[in-house]
Write a structure and sequence with these properties.
globular, single chain, 163 residues, 11 strands, Jelly Rolls, 6-stranded antiparallel beta sheet
Length: 163
């Protein structure tokens, strides 16, 4: 997936007449974070909606991932360049960090290393699925190819502050 390929937001709903329909079919303009990282915010809710769901019209970007907001969900696609993190990159790119979220991550293209705070690093490859349960972690792409990741962030609460 190159930047030219882009990411599209394709959202369905059920019209007031009871018909299945597309409420959104549009390109997602990426947020350009330092260090050549692209973050495509595809969709999200402050809390899960009731069905039938129907919300046409312009999509309003959320203010951030749903950390600490149980029921909040956000869907994103990230493009991480070769040798990520690069100088001048996003502040979380070069250090351990955690959020009060359960992150479901799909490796769409390339490879990425994920380090946990116990010091263990695992190489994730295309087709891998990760469930990150609010633990401290750091990403790096030591390869010469970009890595594309799909994320579903699910907000939750933390019972302790040990991480």
């Amino acid at each position: 997936m190159s930047e030219a390929d882009g990411t599209r937001r394709i959202i369905t709903g059920q019209s007031p007449e009871g018909k299945s329909t597309y409420t959104h079919l549009e390109s997602v303009e990426p947020l350009r974070l330092g260090g050549d990282m692209l973050r495509h915010i595809v969709w999200g809710w402050e809390e899960l909606p009731a069905l039938p769901f129907y919300e046409p019209g312009p999509y309003q970007l959320p203010t951030g991932i749903p950390s600490g907001r149980p029921g909040g969900v956000q869907v994103e696609v990230w493009v991480l360049p070769p040798l990520f993190p690069l100088p001048g990159g996003h502040e979380n790119a070069s250090m351990m960090h955690s959020y009060d979220t359960i992150d479901i991550v799909f490796v769409i293209e390339g490879e990425i290393d994920l380090k946990q705070s116990d010091g263990v690093t695992v190489r994730l490859r295309r087709g891998d699925v990760l469930v990150q349960n609010g633990t401290a972690h750091a990403w790096s792409n030591p390869t010469d190819r970009q890595c594309v990741l799909g994320f579903v962030f699910c907000g939750t609460e933390r019972n302790n502050a040990s991480e």
